[in-house]
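Final report, closing paragraph on structural work. Over the funding period we assembled a curated collection of sequence-structure pairs, and we close with a single example.
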Amino acid sequence: MKKRCGAVLLLALLCPLFHAADLTGTWRMDLARRGGVTLQTYFVLSQHGTRLDGKVVINNCVDLPLRKAHVEGSDGVFSNDWNTDYRLHPEGDHLRVTLTYGGHDSEEATAVRAPEAEAHPPAVIPLPAIDPVPANGLARTPPMGWNSWNHFGDKVDDQTVRETADAMVSSGMAAAGYVFVNIDDCWEGSRDAQGNIVPNTKFPDMKALADYVHQRGLKLGIYSSPGPRTCGGYLGSYGHEEQDAKTYVAWGIDYLKYDWCSAGRVYTDSSLQAGYQKMGRALARSGRPIVFSLCEYGMGDVWKWGPQVGANLWRTTGDIQDNWKSMSEIGFNQGRLAPYAAPGHWNDPDMLEIGNGGMSATEYRTHFSLWCLLAAPLMAGNDLRTMTAETREILVNREVIAIDQDVLGRQGERLASRDGIEIWAKPLHDGSRAIGVFNRNETEKAVQLTWKEIGLATKPTALRDLWQHCDLAPAADAYSAPVPAHGVLLLRVKPQPKG
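Its predicted structure, as stored:
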């Protein structure tokens, strides 16, 4: 009897401890980021013994379900779809949170209880009825330039942008056609008393930065979202579209990349066109020519309505990664969109990864060739200040760039696919054709290209290899050459004149 009473007493003493360790509720975690910005992540949790349910609201941008969620002792353990692992350890009235990114980089933060309403998206602001925005007359050929995200991420700052502008000129990239120096996410700070967007401390004077870029014959681009937050959790343009457009004009901005991000927490996917139209209209009224770039990951068949919202280009895919699998899967799946490309309106398979180190030089030449055949925007994503001569030679190959920038404005299409070999063709304004022969195999292949399969009745009058920079002697009915694994043979073919 004494033993039983003792066990009951011990259980009674432990019950408050178990109750104190209950993770159920809404918790806010503040994370300090560069530029003097603090971002909030919310954990909305429900604990049932060792089972843990709920979601993570990342930077008020996106709701992610818990993966592999459970309770170990008193700790909540789970991961999310963004390759982040969490361990939440109760300490009094707060949680000590350990975050591990991609299985290696980690940091610690504190989470405190918060009202559940804090984790909710803001009230929906009604969107305007669909009413086409007039074309702005810009980007008659695919835009060329540089974007900070692929290499610098949230580390981008004023000095990096200035040095990149200098490198764009000194490397010969500007002379080859690269003109836009684009700041991606993580520049935003706060809004002043009048609601005007203010950069964070990494960008002390955006107008002065724009002036610096303009003085070098270049143009400055910036980034925002139709939602309350950007993908990185910084302030978006939600409810401030007209105001932000006016701010961009005052700074001297020439290009806006507009990323759906947290708009998905406020609007449904059926609101894509109206959501983008709101900023397109604001830019059209701003009085300054600003290239409008939509980043909506190919949702909603954007290529069918992009021009109607005043867009000059639109993303057709999710984010590219610096590896052969990602690049090739994206690039070789763009052919079906060729009918939607035209001067002023371009399909965008995402930025270039050339020079970031995840692929070989052969694969980077394939990347560049394919993007040029696709009439894609050419936005370098490497560190221009330190790029190798090999990287520079790829990016400034004017013969290949000419394929991308051809004024006819036609996107290339796949002609044939056999045994890992793909043949693509792009018509050019002078009657010539750009032909790309791609070897997607893991070994070198000898390839024979017949004139018939590229639509020629007879051998061409001229045949030029655009990577070797040499004229070739075409045979009567075909051209044969070895193509390395993951490599490309890129030709400019001039047919016999008709008649």
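The chain has three domains: 21-119, 144-404, 413-494. The domain at 144-404 is CATH 3.20.20.70 (TIM Barrel). We thank the funder for supporting this effort.
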